[in-house]
Fold this sequence. Notes:
Blueprint: E1 5-7, E2 12-17, E3 23-24, E4 27-29, E5 32-34, E6 38-43, E7 50-51, E8 54-56, E9 59-61, E10 66-73, E11 76-78, E12 81-85, E13 87-94, E14 97-99, E15 102-106, E16 111-118, E17 121-123, E18 126-145, E19 148-166, E20 169-173, E21 178-180, E22 187-188, E23 191-193, E24 196-210, E25 213-215, E26 218-231, E27 234-236, E28 239-242, E29 250-255, E30 258-260, E31 263-265, E32 270-272, E33 279-281, E34 284-285
Parallel strand pairs: 1-5, 2-6, 3-7, 4-8, 5-9, 6-10, 8-11, 9-12, 10-13, 11-14, 12-15, 13-16, 14-17, 15-18, 16-18, 17-18, 18-19, 19-20, 19-21, 19-23, 20-24, 21-24, 22-24, 23-25, 24-26, 25-27, 26-28, 26-29, 27-30, 28-31, 29-32, 30-33, 31-34
Amino acid sequence: MLKNLIFNCSGSGISISGINLTTINSTIINNTIQNCAKGISVNSNSYLSITNHIISFNIIKDCSQWGIDFIGSNAQINNNNISNANGGIQLNGYYNMITYNDIRNIQNNGIEVTGDSYNLIIFNNTIKDCGQIGIDFEGIYSTISYNNIFNVNEGICINGHELNVTDNNIQNCTNNGITVESGTYYSSNHVISNNTIKDCGQRGIDFEGIYSTISYNNMSNVNGGIYVYGFGNDILNNDIVGKNRSEWGIAIGGYNNNIKNNNVRNTKGIGSSDWVNNSFLNNTVT
Length: 286
């Protein structure tokens, strides 16, 4: 599907359903879609019947629901421009790549990954001016990296296992820069590293989970630095500059956490509500 102009739809601009028809190897490129409920909708009851899609270089504007709503596997969703929509990209599936998309002026979430998704790459997207979360991710075995997120309620929110959140640039959040949530079971085995987080109204990183590494993050002008609740976590080599000294630079609740080689400035310092077997070594607080 190439170079179509689609305007003023009450439903989806482009809709592909694999419920009654197996749909594979489709290409949706260079379309302009405006004033639709959903810009592009690709969905199925089975991931296997929606696979190997390329959704690229589409311009999607003024959608009352999602710019792109995708359920499937082995897709490339890249270089799309989505603006003035209720939501940017919603996805559920596995082995999908969401890269180089520009998502702006969104009422709710910029990118939302739901359900039991796994093996996803969310790389180098620009997300700006979202009313809720820049990237909201629920899943496992995935990477969120090199994304630029500006002027949102919350930068990145994850819930799952073995997620790599690295090298993202997050600025001007009303609440937290990065939030890690736990459901029935603790989130676990994450790597949160080399992120730049600036100008947050709440915490740079708010983490609830276990057996994870939070390292080499650079935070400035945040109301609180890194807040951790859980056990078996390594908090290493982070640089944190607070807005003022009213909140903690690093706050620990839990046990068997390793807090080492962090540089904390202009905050209340480093504190813990539970000192059982937590290790604090070579941190600098000024």
